[in-house]
């Protein structure tokens, strides 16, 4: 709810300032009037940064997540409901890498080497969100909006069915993840197409960790829940 409130405040403030900045009428681009079509199509490319949120069974030092920027691309299917509401399907492929750093205290009383303290988690997601886009009134060649919804993702690099676990150097995650998403952006009407930069936060709703065979495993034994969260920066062309 806090994220939704912040986004609504931002949208209201943006609309107010835009109304002052762009009150002078300008030539409206996009002669094909894509916004009036019941169904429209496009594609997107962008960057992502995924993180993990951990809940623990015992109060030990946190598992640190080294984040990096990933890349994604996909398609857009848009269904017009009215001048202010659109239902969107945005299937895409997302590539990302996260490194997990474990503190030495997790291995107290055990033999270990430096490689045991680090786990590289490479993920390739087939990500399918169903989103509701809520727009303001078009201001010349600009239209701000907020967007939110739910999604599912198939992790092609999950290792869920791998019989080896962390004792053999294999970090395992569940194949399927479910998210809720919320973000904002602005439609920019250019001469021949509509260009839309946007930013969106995604938050997993299910536990993604596949536990090791050993219930006292230093890598998974103290984790009660592991959930993905991330930020998408999208550039959409319609």
UniProtKB/TrEMBL annotation:
InterPro entries the record matches: Beta-barrel_OMP_2
Stretch forming the signal peptide: 1-21
Lineage of the species this protein comes from: Bacteria, Pseudomonadati, Bacteroidota, Flavobacteriia, Flavobacteriales
Protein's name according to its UniProt entry: Outer membrane protein beta-barrel domain-containing protein
Domain of life the protein comes from: Bacteria
Domain called Outer membrane protein beta-barrel: residue spans: 37-208
Alphabetical keyword list: Signal
